[in-house]
Design goal:
The protein is of the alpha+beta class. It folds into three domains: 54 residues; 169 residues, no CATH class; 47 residues. The protein has 18 helices and six strands. Helix 16 packs antiparallel against helix 17. 36% of the residues are buried.
């Protein structure tokens, strides 16, 4: 009878892989009953068990044969702020970043072949520039009209409006709540809310769609400020926080001014009305969250810090309760594809593939699809085939 072959994997690598995935031993015991013994060096897994373990914790199998755990740092600066110790980037965040970098690299090469010119606004601002002045430049470049935005019926329309304006200026905007097209790998907005990959030809903004729509609007505006600053990075902008990091503080100020210009807010504000009631009215006017409005009222001197903290706490509780009552709804794949991948990129991949410059397998990888039938439907939806 053949003897079962065990793999001499180091216990510390198994612990590292599990912790990297954000899992406890208890989370994996049903699938791997001897995991505790493996991590303590009292037993060793078979190759099949190790392969299954690697898939479960989403780590390349080869990593488990290294002498020491690899240093998986973020490939771009980390501007996130946490109340506790810094969080190790999860496999979901890392894989999302790598995927978006691949898409950006392809799109940049495509634009170079097309003879595209550098975008003048990328890196055109510095931290010494007044946030109000930079916000005005962003609104002009994106041709954002406050009166036009007020006519939008919902926050989802406001997000699409801002996305369309950014893409029209040459910025790829990708928004998804999952890793690639894998619905089983959901992104955590508590880990990150967005990131920016700065490039003079193909700048990219990614927004975590697992967050609320109103929060996504603020994140998108925040990441646009990163592009004007010429600073790539991962962020978790939170409206109620005033981060110590100079870059994040400045980008928050720019974002707030982009969405709710100071002069317009002061003109619209009715101080005699109850704060929460007034915040809801202004939120509908500016198509942002009530939390952004409260922050702006504090920034322009209409609230004391104590009043802001109290009213913000109450309003955040109301918003969370409202969100908890909502049920998830499935989306149309062809509609969400343009959101996840960015319509300009989808169009470029379709055209390049039809012209024979891009292999179908590469097009499928870039768009996160597998079926030729789906690809044909994408063509037709774009009106290019």
């Amino acid at each position: 009878m053949a003897r079962t072959v065990r793999v001499p994997v180091k216990p510390e690598l198994l612990r590292w892989a599990r912790e990297r995935a954000g899992l406890r031993v208890e989370d994996l015991l049903r699938a791997f009953p001897k995991l505790e013994a493996w991590e303590q060096g009292e037993a060793q897994p078979t190759l099949r068990q190790l392969e299954n373990f690697a898939r479960r914790v989403r780590v390349p199998l080869g990593y488990l044969f290294l002498a020491t755990p690899p240093d998986e740092s973020l490939p771009i600066p980390d501007f996130r702020t946490f109340t506790g110790p810094p969080r190790r980037p999860s496999p979901d965040l890392l894989d999302t970043l790598y995927l978006i970098q691949q898409r950006q690299a392809w799109y940049r090469e495509y634009l170079q072949i097309q003879g595209a010119e550098s975008l003048p606004f990328v890196g055109s601002a510095t931290l010494q520039d007044a946030p109000e002045a930079v916000a005005a430049q962003i609104r002009r470049t994106l041709d954002m009209d406050l009166d036009e935005r007020r006519t939008l019926r919902a926050w989802s329309e406001a997000f699409r409006y801002l996305t369309g304006k950014a893409e029209g200026a040459g910025i790829l905007v990708m928004s998804s709540g999952i890793v690639g097209a894998n619905t089983h790998r959901k992104l955590d907005p508590e880990e990150f809310r967005g990131f920016t990959l700065v490039d003079d030809l193909a700048p990219v903004v990614f927004v975590n769609a697992a967050d609320t729509v109103a929060a996504r609007i603020f994140t998108l505006a925040h990441e646009l400020a990163h592009i004007w600053l010429g600073q790539s990075g991962v962020s978790n902008p939170q409206i109620h926080r005033f981060p110590e990091k100079a870059v994040e503080h400045w980008c928050n100020q720019v974002a707030a001014e982009v969405l709710v210009p100071r002069a317009a807010l002061l003109e619209e504000h009715r101080p005699a009305r109850p704060p929460q009631e007034e915040a809801q009215r202004l939120a509908r006017r500016f198509k942002v969250s009530t939390l952004v409005i409260l922050r702006r009222l504090y920034e322009v001197g209409r609230f004391s810090e104590e009043t802001f903290r109290q009213v913000y706490r109450e309003e955040r509780g109301r918003v969370r309760a409202m969100m908890a009552q909502r049920t998830g709804q499935g989306g149309n794949f062809y509609r969400t594809l343009f959101t996840r991948v960015s319509r300009p990129l989808v169009e470029a991949v379709a055209v390049s593939t039809l012209e024979g410059h891009t292999l179908y397998r590469d097009a499928y990888r870039l768009l996160g699809i597998r079926s030729p039938e789906v690809f044909q439907k994408i063509y037709r939806s774009l009106g290019v085939a």
